[in-house]
Amino acid sequence: MNEMRLNLPDDATIERSGVIAQAANAVARGDDYFRGVLDALTAAVYITDAAGLITYYNEAAAALWGRRPELGIDQWCGSWKLFWPDGRQLPLDECPMALTLREERPVLGMEAIAERPDGSRVSVIPYPTPLYDASGALIGAVNMLVDVSERKLADVQAQRLASIVESSDDAIIGKDLNGIIASWNCGAQRVFGYTAEEMIGRPVSVLIPPERENEEPGILQRIRRGERIDHYETVRRRKDGSLVDISLTVSPIRNAAGEVIGASKVARDITERRRARDEQQLLLREMDHRIKNLFALASSVVSLSARTAGSPAELATSVRDRLGALARAHALTLSVPSSSARSENPATLHALIKTIVSPYENQAPEERERVTVTGADAPLSNSSVTSLALLLHEFTTNAAKYGALSTPEGRVDVHCEVAGDKLLLNWNERGGPVLGDEVSVDGFGSMLIRSAIEGQLGGAIARDWQADGLAIRLSLALDRLSN
């Protein structure tokens, strides 16, 4: 015969089943008083004869079964169908009442599932007890059915909650009103490094850095008042002594009477979130700084270009070209997204030169480059890109107007080299038109040299108008380029 799951009854239930057995004996003898007692009970009770035929049941039993069995016809149990706790069907002749009558012994604490005619089910623990006459002969049995459906549901919910707590990535900690840890999940071990064995029974202050020890008394005081603390960001200390940024949510734990007896603490590691937030704020500040600088620069370009422009059209062209050069240059300072980490700033001196001169290069792929860049390269900071971009744009524009880039055969060789703490840039034009006199550099170019080269970049410039083209020697401070 299949075994039912055993649920050991408490003393009160055993005592109650014994009293009901005495009342059932009286009912079997025809005592109407005790019949009225059993009828008034909220517990499901029924009686059978020695053959297992039902001779009595109260209203609570009929409600539990969802039907009214026929007295003297239905045998062993009034349930429509019975099942084992694992879902297998339980034959009536193997139910606890049948076992009690067959073996003449009480069967206590075994669990079954009763199905009603409407298909609903209820988990019950039966307490069948044999009945004897004055001579000691078996005359039947009485059974009390205890509905444990709500308890089973509560057990399932508790198990589900326990599973959620244990599998959570967050640290979930239970503590009493004195701050002594009572429970510690796997998430707490991952976040703080301590095992449950190391922490249960210890004060939660073990996790608090000395400079934040005043936080816990305030938290416990609010919990005692029944308050909940949501998303309180603070710092705690791991087992290895390192600090971790966390977000705390602390809720009061209450007993059945509604009294606060402890607290449940959920601690979420927000180290990465805080780092991302700090980086975002840094980027926003940088963007704000860049935008303000670009507006100021655009205003300066317009003002300075207006001083040397001969007409509105010439002003529009020079402003458009200079702003276009700046736009291309600043595109170099944008980091390229990477799946692993932020990429290095791609702005270098060689990349900037090639970007500025690119509109003047030959478009046909079979033609050789008109501008070559050789020698040492150097990384550029965002601030140095702006000054260099305007400076190189002036070199390129003058070469396109008057120098090597104004003729099909002309070319420009740019060579860079490091000399101590300086970077030397040599701009050599070849194949351009013969210049009778030095080209004037007054106006925007001279203002740019004073503000950018001498001021911002800590350098100097020298020009040499040779027979076959202009040669420019530019000296720049290396530390100004990258900082």
Characterise this structure.
The protein has 483 residues and is an alpha+beta fold. It has helices at residues 11-28, 32-40, 59-65, 96-103, 149-167, 186-192, 196-199, 215-224, 271-308, 312-331, 349-357, 382-401, 444-456, 478-482; strands at residues 44-49, 54-57, 81-83, 112-115, 121-132, 138-147, 171-176, 181-184, 229-237, 243-254, 260-269, 371-375, 411-419, 422-430, 460-466, 469-477. The strands form three sheets. The chain has a six-stranded antiparallel beta sheet with strand order 2-1-6-5-4-3. Strand 5 (121-132) and strand 6 (138-147) form a beta hairpin. Helix 9 runs antiparallel to helix 10. The longest helix has 38 residues, at 271-308. The protein is rod-shaped.
List keywords for this structure.
483 residues, alpha+beta, Beta-Lactamase, Heat Shock Protein 90, 3 domains, six-stranded antiparallel beta sheet, five-stranded antiparallel beta sheet, rod-shaped, disordered N terminus
List the helices and strands and how they pair.
Blueprint: H1 11-28, H2 32-40, E1 44-49, E2 54-57, H3 59-65, E3 81-83, H4 96-103, E4 112-115, E5 121-132, E6 138-147, H5 149-167, E7 171-176, E8 181-184, H6 186-192, H7 196-199, H8 215-224, E9 229-237, E10 243-254, E11 260-269, H9 271-308, H10 312-331, H11 349-357, E12 371-375, H12 382-401, E13 411-419, E14 422-430, H13 444-456, E15 460-466, E16 469-477, H14 478-482
Helix pairs in contact: 1-2, 9-10, 10-12, 11-12, 12-13
Q: Brief description of this entry?
A:
This protein has 483 residues and is an alpha+beta fold. The chain has 3 domains: 11-153, PAS domain (Beta-Lactamase, 2-Layer Sandwich); 168-269, PAS domain (Beta-Lactamase, 2-Layer Sandwich), CATH 3.30.450.20; 278-482, 2-Layer Sandwich (Heat Shock Protein 90). 39% of the residues lie in helices and 25% in strands.
